[in-house]
Amino acid sequence: MIDLLRLRARLGRQTVAYPEGPARFPERFRGRPALDPDRCEAGCRACADACPVDAVLRPGEAGMALDLGRCTFCPGCEEACPTGAVRFTRDYRLAARDREALVVSGDRPLLAEALGAELRGLLGRSLRLRQVSAGGCNACEAELNATGNVQFDFSRFGVQFVASPRHADGVVVTGPVSDHMREALRRTWEATPSPKILVAVGACAISGGPFQGGSVAGGAAEALPGVPVDLFIPGCPPHPITLLDGLLRLLGRVKGEALSLSPTGIVGPARRG
């Protein structure tokens, strides 16, 4: 026991300082893409041809855009672009309330808007979520699990994952919704008491990702017609800090533009609500 206590003292604090301070990322982390259509060569389709999920829209035009709801954040478009019109930044702020907001151009962060005051009052300090893996590869599920470890410790914000939808305040969907999981997802949603929220995590849960077609119904919005998705968190998979940022913004716990960026990482204080 003494040895364990000594080890713990030697390790010190492991939890990231986010949102009060800097968030740590690995060197190969790729965050929000930045587009500069003015640098595009007219008619050039190099970035679009390199994209495995058709996420690049209107390539070689002034209105070029990138659909983060489809993007797998591979470096294909950046490497293929001969003029540097597409590049990936280290900005983790990617979540949005509306699907249309994920179609981006230029170089601006995505800052998800908060829920209404009534829902924030009910869910803002104690949020319980039921996660449904609807047919994915388990990468997004692994990142969601990581939000509960000592590095990120989502529970310090009062957010926890629960085993039963009857104990939940909302449902988190990961993976493309396969035909076989569509009914299970619907029943999970219906078993969750109102008021409740629906969160789509990862490209597959947003659009079907690279698994579109065949026996895949699509993303959460397609699988649950008529049910609005309250938060879209893109990525393949999204980093735990991206997950934290999106959900805390939804709950009104993080406001403003939060952490600033530097070439080596992300520094500067965040403003919390």
UniProtKB/TrEMBL annotation:
This is Hydrogenase. It comes from the Bacteria. Its cofactor is [4Fe-4S] cluster. Gene3D superfamilies: 3.30.70.3270, 3.40.50.12280. Residues 31-61, 62-91 form the 4Fe-4S ferredoxin-type domain. Belongs to the complex I 20 kDa subunit family. Keywords: 4Fe-4S, Iron, Iron-sulfur, Metal-binding.
